[in-house]
Design goal:
- The chain is of the alpha+beta class.
- It has 2 domains: 59 residues; 105 residues, Immunoglobulins (Immunoglobulin-like, Sandwich), CATH 2.60.40.10.
- It is 32% helix and 30% strand.
- The chain is built from 3 helices and 8 strands.
- α1 runs antiparallel to α2.
- The relative contact order is 0.15.
């Protein structure tokens, strides 16, 4: 549209015979061109304001990237292995504390315990009954063991199976714990 107006003014300017008419056309063309630039500038500024307003609204409420939600799963960790005295001479309880740090209940697993004497003799692994543990819950299992296995011995506790049903295979590092005891832990 601007080029057609310019062409029309240029044609009229060339065809005019009087100086006064030529100056009049030149003035009209200048005013027209000036108003077009003002309109164009105002239109451009309005677009820029709208664009900046849209950007500011987006910056005020940034969208957080959606992180994939892992499905609820158990995560059993062996917390500690301690010795608890018994009234029976020559024997104590090995107490294994375990916790479900996952987001779902764990069931269908057992706690296994292996003892190794100071001389390297290995006692066959013994297991608890099948267990169930709610998310965030802590529990203990006690195994009766003779002092010859405890004094200067090593106890290893683990979950069976590992991983626990429903537990991720990448979370099994804490499913086993070993503890070596001193010479006079059991009497």
């Amino acid at each position: 549209m601007e080029t057609s107006n310019f062409d029309r003014f240029a044609t009229m300017f060339v065809q005019t015979t009087s100086r006064r008419r030529a100056l009049h056309l030149l003035g009209v063309a200048a005013v027209g061109a000036g108003s077009l630039s003002v309109i164009g500038t105002q239109s451009g500024l309005a677009k820029k304001r709208r664009r900046n307003k849209h950007k500011n609204q987006q910056q005020d409420t940034p969208e957080q990237p959606q992180q994939p939600q892992d499905p609820p799963a158990p995560n059993i960790t062996i917390q500690s292995i301690t010795v608890s005295p018994l009234a029976e001479a020559g024997h104590d309880n090995v107490v294994i504390e375990y916790r479900n740090i996952g987001t779902a209940a764990a069931s269908g697993f057992r706690i296994g315990m292996v003892a190794v004497r100071q001389d390297g003799t290995v006692r066959n692994e013994v297991f608890s009954l099948p267990l169930t543990l709610a998310p965030g819950a802590t529990a203990t299992e006690a195994f009766r063991l003779g002092c010859a296995w405890l004094n200067n011995g090593t106890i290893t506790a683990r979950t069976d199976p590992s991983p626990v049903p429903g537990e991720s295979a990448t979370l099994t590092a804490d499913n086993t714990l070993s503890q070596t005891f001193g010479a006079a832990v059991c009497s």
